[in-house]
Amino acid sequence: MRRAVVSIPSNIAEGQTRTTSREFIRFLAMAEGSLGEVETQLMIAERLGYIKPKQLEELLEQAAEVARLLKGLMKAIEKRIAALTTKH
Fold this sequence. Notes:
The chain is about 90% helix and about 0% strand. It starts with a helix and ends with a helix.
């Protein structure tokens, strides 16, 4: 779970340093995939008794907020790409 959690901001940071917006979006998508891994691992942790149902609920709500932020950033970058494409 730690690897997947660390992978989320790491992919965002790496994507931000890339030369094109499309590459950045690709890394944001990888961050989104890592977030999915974390959500799955949290559900497994709850089923195995490592965390309580209330903790799972709270953590999944936080994960959903991160997912909304990632999707919003991806959409904003895609809009910028589309605007630049139509200008040329």
